[in-house]
Sequence to fold (177 residues):
Amino acid sequence: MRLSRVQVRNFKSIDDSAPFSIDRVTCFVGKNESGKSALLQALYKLGPVTQADANFDPLVNYPRRRWSAYKERMAKNPDLVVTTWWELDNDDIAAFAKTFGPNTLTGTTIEISKDYSNAVRYNNLPLDEKQVVARLVRESDLYEEERQPPRIPRTRLTKVSKFSLLSSNSRVRTSLN
Fold:
């Protein structure tokens, strides 16, 4: 995988860097205290060399001027700090095909993010979930009846709930009464 884009938010002096592209060589230029080092520090915490450097500490890292408002909601709604986009190379694509099956990859970009809860999230994984599940079911040791999708009984109640959004004078809704 190759890092292709980065966005850093709510970290030290950075409110929101907005997503920007990364190439084989990228140069950060700016005035002193403009956030160049902070940007690299936030990115480093996504995959540090030592685990001791991995965690974001909101008390230390969150922008001071907004800390009072944030500490009230941080436990329930931690802010994102770093979002990265990675381009899969041919080896990655082959590994996905081996793991999930051929033709299950729907794109070549993976989004990885981390917030102040220090949870790393893999967002927008470009997989065709239906194909992956179908392959897993095919290759499993399930009985034939277990391989079939669940059937939802069609009762008058499910029909009523299904058509409850129809206008009161619709032909279908009138026939249910």
About this structure: The chain has one domain: 2-135. The first strand starts at residue 2 and ends at 11. The beta strands are 2-11, 14-16, 20-21, 80-87, 109-115, 120-123.
